[in-house]
Write a structure and sequence with these properties.
- The structure holds two protein chains of two kinds.
- By secondary structure, chain A is an alpha+beta fold.
- Chain A is 19% helix and 28% strand.
- Chain A has two helices and ten strands; from the N terminus they run αββαββββββββ.
- In chain A, the strands form two sheets. In chain A, strands 1-2-3-9-5-6 form a six-stranded antiparallel sheet, with no helix packed on it. In chain A, strands 8-7-4-10 form a four-stranded mixed sheet, with no helix packed on it.
- The mean pLDDT of chain A is 88.
- Chain B contains six helices and nine strands, in the order ααβββββαβααββαβ.
- Helices cover 32% and strands 32% of the residues of chain B.
- The interface between A and B is large, with 60 and 65 residues.
Chain lengths: 192, 183
């Protein structure tokens, strides 16, 4: 009797622990082989055959095709520099320098990887489209309401994420975590 | 007391096994992976343009809206595959994925070094059949080995500005993939 109770208890706890851990790692992402610069995190190996089992599971579940190593590298941001959630009712700025790359794009998605509908149909900027100052620096304002300059609309969604893709870049292929390039800083400027 | 601890220890160990096996099983059980999504939209061994993502509809999540994309869903059962893709003005890349969405090879226009990206895709068995001198003499012949018989080739052409999207699409419209006898 005691044995039966004990094994039932064990199996229940094991299933809860195991599946819970799986759910957590697949929804939050894991740190294996990641490259973090400020608020941005990339998994350069996800674009190669050296992809780890967790990233494989995440990709199989979401249905995306990762950018291949040799094509580029993808950085994701779910929070700003200070760790605040990217809330579409707030205003954020993205500014600073980008690592060496032939082209880059920055795109705003909802947490499921869908574009967010907005009045001007603007979801992204490319390195060629961006308006820069005389030093070559730029500021992108991510905000619910229209802004002058590089405005990336959030449409007031509760939570969004930013994806920075660098194409034809040595980042992730040649660099190690210790020697990383600069990434633009994300800062919260206020909430409406 | 000790007995209770042993049960808990067993539960943790077993939980670890459940966790690892569920992670490893995910790619095998996923019903909505990229290949499954593209299967109804793409004929085999043919380059097909993909519609870009919009807020209402996207073939896959996290597609880059600045790129025109086309796919060749391949099956090497009948021979090797020759891929020819003209290079667009800005940036063009070709990425090879297995059935399970693993990017096993990617090349861009600069690495290819000319106006056309030209590749022969074959299985390791087919590659072994290629006469050796053929392999050496054709220095400009780029051979890629596919780890699986079926998979996806994704062609991407950047539209550096929104108005240039038709041009990027046009460049990809000239791409072809076709089965060839192994030689």
């Amino acid at each position: 009797m005691r044995l039966l109770f004990g094994s039932c208890f064990t199996f229940l706890i094991a299933a809860a622990l195991g599946l819970g851990a799986t759910w957590l790692t697949l929804t939050r992402g894991v740190a294996f082989g990641s490259l973090s610069i400020g608020a941005w995190t990339a998994w350069p190996k996800s674009g190669s055959v050296d992809i780890d089992p967790y990233a494989r599971a995440i990709i199989a579940r979401s249905g995306e095709l990762p950018v291949g190593m040799g094509d580029g590298v993808t950085f994701y941001a779910h929070t700003d520099e200070a760790g605040d959630n990217l809330d579409g009712r707030c205003t954020f700025t993205i500014s600073g320098m980008t690592p060496a790359a032939r082209y880059w794009t920055v795109t705003l998605y909802d947490p499921e990887g869908r574009l967010v509908a907005n009045t001007i149909d603007r979801h992204d900027f490319t390195s060629e489209e961006i308006v820069r100052d005389s030093d070559g620096r730029f500021t992108i304002t991510v905000a619910p309401l229209a802004r002058p300059g590089n405005w990336l609309p959030t449409a007031g969604v509760e939570q969004f994420m930013l994806v920075w893709r660098l194409y034809d870049t040595p980042i992730g292929v040649a660099t190690r975590t210790a020697k990383k390039g600069p990434m633009p800083a994300i800062e919260r400027k206020g909430c409406s | 007391m000790i007995r209770g601890l042993l049960w808990i220890l067993a539960a943790i160990l077993l939980g670890g096994i459940v966790h690892l096996s569920s992670v490893l099983a995910m790619p095998q059980t996923a019903k909505q992976d990229a290949y499954s999504r593209l299967l109804p939209l793409t004929p085999v061994n043919k380059v097909v343009a993909l519609s870009g993502p919009t807020p209402d509809a996207a073939i896959m999540p996290f597609m880059d809206p600045a790129f025109a994309q086309a796919v060749c869903r391949y099956d090497l059962t009948g021979g090797m595959l020759r891929l020819i893709a003209p290079v667009s003005q800005a940036y063009t890349s070709v990425t090879f994925y297995t059935r399970k969405s693993i990017a096993y090879y990617a090349i861009n226009d600069r690495a290819a070094g000319r106006r056309m990206i030209e590749l022969d895709l074959m299985t390791p068995e087919q590659h072994a059949e290629v006469p050796e001198e053929e392999d050496v003499t054709a220095a400009d012949r780029l051979i890629i080995e596919s780890p699986s018989k079926v998979g996806l080739i994704v062609l991407r052409a950047l539209a550096p500005e929104r108005g240039l999207m038709p041009m990027a699409r046009q460049a990809l419209a000239g791409a072809t993939c076709s089965i060839q006898p192994v030689q």
